[in-house]
Amino acid sequence: MRKTQITIDVELDENHIPENITWNAQDGGVEKEETKATMISVWDDKTMEALRIDLWTKEMPVDQMKMFIHQILVSLGSTYQRATGEEDVAQWLEQIADEFAVKSAIRM
């Protein structure tokens, strides 16, 4: 069995607010790559719920956060389609992403 590792390092200020976030993925050639935000979800099959960690730095601009969330919504449709084969629901998720883009003023 092969094993790999992805790590996220978070530097916090005195109020425990992220100031710097870096991530590493050896297999992807990523080392100490800076980022302004990260969202991680894991599935707990015992409690049947998603557990999440959402972090962003003080310097993450609101307009970029809107774009980040929009791209996550778009990717959810793609992930859902690959996982379930349900194209109609995947398309509906894409429509939601499009509506979000308009309502959040990142697209007209």
TrEMBL record:
Listed Pfam families: GldC-like
InterPro entries the UniProt entry points to: Motility-assoc_prot_GldC
Protein name, per record: Gliding motility protein GldC
Organism: Chryseobacterium elymi
Gene: gldC
